[in-house]
Design a protein that fits this description.
alpha+beta; 21 strands; Ubiquitin Conjugating Enzyme; single chain; 11 helices; 4-stranded antiparallel sheet; 418 residues
Length: 418
C-alpha cells in the first residue's frame, strides 16, 4: 500500500513502533499542532486525536465522523489527507474571521446570563472580548482553585473549554494543550456516546469541574500534609495536578515519591526512588524495603504516617514558641545539609536568554558530592566548576577538571561547562 505521509513533511512518528505521530497540519494556509495516537494491536485502547485549540474548534462538530475514520485508519498519510480536505471545505478563513470579529449579541446576552447563574463572586477576571474567563472557586475542603474558561465565537453552538488542575488523566475530556497536557479538561469533545450537538453551558461545565475537584479531596489533603510536614525540595511551587514530591532526608540524600492512584492516595504503596551518595542512601533504602517486605503499609492511615514509620527523617524539624508560632530554625539547619556548600542554595537557576530570562530546565541541584564520607558536602556543578577553575592547583585533561574539595581537600572532579 502506498503511504501518503510524505505529503506532510511537518508530521513524524514520535515513537519507535509508529503508534504516535506529532507535528503540524496546514488548514487554509494556517498551521495547527496535531497529535495522533493509533490503537495498539491486541489492546483495548482506542485511537485519539489531539491538537491546538483552534484545530479542536474546527474538528468538534464532526468529531464522531473523524473519530470513526481514525479508528479504521490503515495509513496515517491517507487519513491526514482526508482530514485536511474535509476541514478545508468546512472552515474557510473568511467565515472564521467574520465570526470572530462580529459575534452575535445573543452570545453576549447568554454569557451575561451564565455569569449571573455562576455568581460574580467566583469571577476573577476576563478579557475585553469576553472570550476568556478566570474563576476562583473553593472546593469542599475550602481550597481555592483557579479555573480558566474559553468561550468559542460560535457559543452556544459550540461548548466552552474548561481548564483546571486535576491530578489524573481520566478527567482529560477534550483537547490536549501541548504545554499542560495533564491539567487540561474540556467538553468540546467527549469520550462518551453523547451526540456532538449536545453542547453544554458554561455553568454546567464549571459545576462538572468542581465535582471533579471534590472527588480528589483526600489527595489534596495528602499532598498538603506532605508539603507542611516534610522538607519538600521539588517542585518549588507544586500545582494541584502534581502527584509527586521530592523530599529531603539529610546528608544530600532524598527520595521522590509518586502517588499511583490520586483517587485513593493511600490504598496503593507509592512509587519511591532514592537519590544521593550510594553509601549514605543505602540505610534509607534498606529501611524502606524492610518496611515494605514486612507488609507494614497501612491503607487506613495517612501517607505521612506510613512514611515516618519507615523513614522518620522525612519529617520536618519544627518547634513551637509560646505564641504557638511555628519556627523554622531547626529546619534551616536541616536545609543546610541539602544546600550547595559554595553558594548555600539548593537550586541554582541559570539564565538562558540574552534578556536574563530563566528556564526550569536549566536549574541545578547539588548533585556533585564529595566522596569523603567525613565531608559528604554537595555542590552545584557550575559552582564547583568555577571554584576549581579559579584554583591554580587545578589540572585539566580534555574536558575534565581535577582538583580538591573546597572543604576537606579530598580529590574531586567535574566536567568542564562549555
Amino acid at each position: 500500500m502506498t503511504s501518503y505521509l510524505h505529503t506532510f513533511p511537518l508530521i513524524a512518528p514520535a515513537d519507535e513502533k509508529g503508534f504516535i505521530y506529532r507535528g503540524f497540519i496546514e488548514i487554509n494556509q494556517v498551521e495547527h499542532y496535531i497529535e495522533l495516537h493509533l490503537p495498539r494491536p491486541h489492546s483495548n485502547t482506542s485511537a485519539n486525536i489531539y491538537g491546538s485549540h483552534e484545530l479542536r474548534t474546527i474538528i468538534s462538530p464532526f468529531q464522531s465522523i473523524i473519530q470513526s475514520r481514525l479508528d479504521q485508519c490503515q495509513d496515517v498519510g491517507m487519513f491526514l489527507s482526508d482530514l485536511k480536505d474535509t476541514l478545508e471545505n468546512i472552515s474557510s478563513p473568511s467565515v472564521t474571521h467574520h465570526t470572530r470579529v462580529k459575534p452575535s449579541w445573543e452570545r453576549y446576552a447568554l454569557i451575561y446570563a451564565e455569569l449571573n447563574t455562576i455568581g460574580y463572586d467566583k469571577l476573577d477576571s476576563m478579557d475585553d472580548t469576553m472570550d476568556e474567563f478566570i474563576f476562583k472557586c473553593k472546593d469542599l475542603g475550602g481550597r481555592l482553585h483557579t479555573i480558566k474558561a474559553y468561550i468559542p465565537p460560535q457559543y452556544p453552538l459550540q461548548s466552552p473549554v474548561i481548564k483546571a488542575e486535576l491530578p489524573s488523566e481520566k478527567h482529560h475530556i477534550g483537547y490536549m494543550d501541548d504545554s499542560k497536557r495533564d491539567i487540561t479538561t474540556s467538553t468540546i469533545t467527549t469520550t462518551t456516546s453523547h451526540s456532538t450537538t449536545n453542547h453544554q453551558s458554561l455553568s454546567a461545565l464549571l459545576d462538572r469541574t468542581l465535582q471533579a475537584l471534590d472527588n480528589y479531596q483526600l489527595f489534596f489533603s495528602t499532598m498538603d500534609q506532605l508539603d507542611q510536614q516534610t522538607r519538600v525540595i521539588d517542585p518549588d511551587h507544586p500545582s494541584r495536578a502534581d502527584t509527586w514530591r521530592r523530599i529531603a532526608l539529610g546528608n544530600h540524600c532524598s527520595l521522590q515519591i509518586t502517588i499511583q492512584d490520586p483517587s485513593q492516595p493511600t490504598k496503593y504503596i507509592p512509587i519511591v526512588r532514592f537519590f544521593g551518595n550510594e553509601k549514605k542512601v543505602l540505610p534509607f533504602q534498606q529501611a524502606w524495603h524492610q518496611f515494605i517486605n514486612a507488609q507494614q503499609w497501612q491503607p487506613d492511615i495517612s501517607l505521612v504516617e506510613n512514611l515516618t514509620r519507615a523513614l522518620p527523617s522525612v519529617l520536618r524539624s519544627k518547634y513551637t514558641t509560646s505564641s504557638d508560632r511555628i519556627m523554622d530554625t531547626a529546619t534551616k539547619e536541616q536545609d543546610d545539609d541539602m544546600a550547595c556548600a559554595i553558594c548555600y542554595a539548593y537550586k541554582l537557576v541559570q539564565s538562558t536568554g540574552d534578556d536574563g530570562s530563566t528556564d526550569k530546565k536549566h536549574q541545578e541541584t547539588p548533585d556533585t558530592i564529595c566522596t569523603n564520607q567525613q565531608c559528604n558536602r554537595g555542590f552545584h556543578p557550575s559552582c564547583l566548576f568555577e571554584w576549581l577553575r579559579s584554583n591554580p592547583t587545578t589540572t585539566r585533561s580534555f574536558n575534565v577538571l581535577f582538583g580538591s574539595c573546597p572543604y576537606c581537600n579530598n580529590k574531586i572532579t567535574i566536567k568542564a561547562i562549555l
